[in-house]
Amino acid sequence: xxxxxxSIRVPAGVLPELVRGCERAGPEALGALRAAGxxxxxxxxxxxxxxxxxxxxxxxxxxxxxxxxxxxxxxxPARYEVLSSGIxxxxxxxxxxxxxxxxxxxxxxxxxxxxxxxxRTAGEAVAVxxxxxxxGGHPACRFLVGAEGRLREVREHLMGGGSLAEALEGP
Length: 171
Fold this sequence. Notes:
By secondary structure, the protein is of the alpha+beta class. Helix content is 44%, strand content 14%.
């Protein structure tokens, strides 16, 4: 049986270093970092609030709780927005995982963290796709959240040269 363990804290600079090392090691290492993020995401809200489950809060209160928790954990504040066609957006303008990197933009740990966190809340698996990254010159890291099939369609559209706005207009 899994025994609950206390959270540990590490300096924010650890994340970009982990990503760099995983990039050198290859796709399997990046997948492992994403999986570690998913594990972190499933437990990040365990010690917040007044003892009630954050999942039981209304949408606005839930995202206030998520943003406060992420910010106090060193990830920076989060902004949430419902977009269209079953897709939402999470924006992390201060995500340290993107700091000091200008090659290979992407934040696999945060992608996994959001998938774990939001999947736990939804009670089912959710897919997360990073569409903008500060390491790639964007003002913030932006993630899309939704059903795996729908996000696969968006990803394919983007990889084919289409715009995000067009992809979100999809079925």
